[in-house]
Amino acid sequence: MTKFTIRVVLHDDPTWDDYEQLASALAARNITDVLTNSEGVQYKMPPAEYQCQGDLSAAEIRDICVAAAKTTGKPHAVLVTESVSRAWVGLKRVDG
Which helix (H) or strand (E) holds 27? Predict the structure, then answer.
């Protein structure tokens, strides 16, 4: 399975509610803002950053994200990067 790191930015003065709607639309498409390390500990990604895994291309993931962003009614930008590995520091641990 391929890992993808994704950034979706909403334009024209988006509100927190717009980003919550975006996150819900992405989650419905199995795209989340939570990373899991090799020990199974989960971490919240920075704002407007998302991730997913699957047997799709970067262009297919982009199109899925565009469809989710359109649900907000805001102009948007989407960047999808295929990830071989990830490393991070300073992300907040997801409790529970």
Answer: helix 16-27
